[in-house]
Structure formats: structure tokens, C-alpha cells
Amino acid sequence: MKNKSKNAEFKNINSEKNKFYLRFIRTAILGVLALLPAFLLASCGQEEEVFANVFQVYYVNNEETGLVTREYQTNSTDMDELAAELLAALGMVSEKLEYKSPLAGGFELLDYSISEGRIVLNFDTFYSDQTVITEILVRAALVRTLTQVDGIDYVSILIQSEPLLDSMGNLVGVMAADMFINSAGDEIYDYEKTSLRLYFSDESGKNLVVATRSNVVYNSNVAIEKVVVENLIAGPVMGENVHPVINPATRIISITVVDGICYVNFDSGFLGQLDNVSADVTIYAITNSLVELPNINKVSISVNGGINEIFRENVSLSTIFERNLDLVTV
Q1: What is the pTM of this model?
Q2: CB under 8 Å to 64, separation ≥6 — which residues?
């Protein structure tokens, strides 16, 4: 009987111990489960902060006057994988339509290849339907984005496997990032002062006269080349013995500088006739004024994106204009 009593007592003790352990284990598990979400969040947060590569992807701003950048982070390190990811990013449309994606413009990338430090992009014929300025900006965005990949130094563009030609019919060829002026950057709102050397018409409308303006105040968020053209459109100011060269109803659609060439795109108001002012005076007032800027060597003028326009019946806008001082009079 004593043995039975001891056995029963022993079983009761073991039972109580088991219950205690079970309660302890349940409590421990519940504690771990309670902490698990915080642990996972912390782990995820750490993973989001550490990336193998961080790139700047270039997009065209909505005004089509320059480029904007957005950061792209990836853990890929393989050159081919990185190129594929960046090309996909270049085709992603902004949810808020804050910018225009270079590869979402109504044309298709048929294929691409990478060899000896160069990526070759082969597009369909719809690529050529872009306006001159848009195509240049798209090209700049592609080159600046893709050449960040280690192992890709140059970009070439083909149209249906044929080399890309520019608006003048010249071969574009192999492109490097330093061929394009970096017009990307965060918007800033500040004001600066500068001096401008502008060209207007004389009284006869057949010659150019220089007007120097000091302390011109402008928003630093506005490109200086746009400031120049806006001043030409606005016309002479008090005290200047010069005459207008551009129809004041003219609106600038876009203006950008790529590879030393300033591309100015006006609306149809530019075609409006000014009394007695010759076509050459208007064209070279714009050209000479812009070439005064250190980053501009030549000027291309278009109307509503078209460069095949004949300005005032005798000047083809398909020309890339250079400085002309023969029309300047003292």
C-alpha cells in the first residue's frame, strides 16, 4: 500500500511539473510570437537599407526641356541583369505623371546586345516619329542611365538594325555620357543676376544691333538660354535704341542644350511677320544671342517640333545655325 501511495504521489508531482513546463513553453512561445513582427520589421528595414548598387535613372521632364533623375536600388551585380533592370526602369511610367519615361513613347525596343563595353539598342521605326528635341532627350537619358553600369561605357542606337541618323541626316554613332550636358537635378527656387548680350534689329530691319543688359534678374530654376530667348521675345527695354526681332505673340514650347547645340522649339506664333524685319535678322538675332553663352556653339530652330518649316519663304529651319556677325552694325 505504501508503494502505491508513493507511486500516486510521484505521478501527481510529475503531472504538476508537466503542467508547469507546458505553461512555461506556451508562455515562451507566445512571447516569441509577440516579438516576431517587430523582429521581422527590423530585419526588413535593414535589408531595405543595404543594396549592392544604387543608380540614377534619367527621365524626360514634362516640359521636355531637360532631364530629371530618380534613384534606383538593386542587389544585382551582374552586368546583364543590371542592364535589363535599368531598361525596365526606363520604361516605367510615373504614377503621378511627374515625368516622361524614355522607353514609353510609342515605340518598342526590339532587342539589345552588350559587347566590348558597348550596349546596342535596336528600336522599331516608330522611334523616328519623335520630335527632334524629344529624341535627343530620350537619347541622353538612355546613355546617362546605362553607362553607369560597370562594363558599359558606350551606347549605340539602331532603327530596325540600321544606324541612327540625326535630324540633319548625319550618323549619330557611338555615344558616351560626357557627350550630353547634364540638365538633371532637383528643382531649386532662388534668384540670380547676370549680364546678357542680346541682338536686336536696327530701324531698317536689315541689320543687327547689340544691346548689353546688366543685372538681369532671373529664377535660377529657369535655364539661362530660356532667359535669353524670353528677353528677345519681350523686345527692347527703355533706353535701348533697337527694334524687336521676334513676334511678341511667340511662345517657347521647349528649349534645351545638347552637345553644344541649343534646340529652340517655338509655337506657330514665331511665324508671324514683323514689319520690315528680314528673316535673316530674326534668325541670327536668336542665334548670335544664344551663342554668346559659353555652353552653346550652334542653334537649331523648330516650329511645333518640325524642322522642315520654311521661315518667311526663304530660310530653311532644317539648318543648324552658327554665329553670323556680318549683319551686325555699330
Answers
A1: 0.55
A2: 100, 131, 133, 134, 137, 253, 254, 256
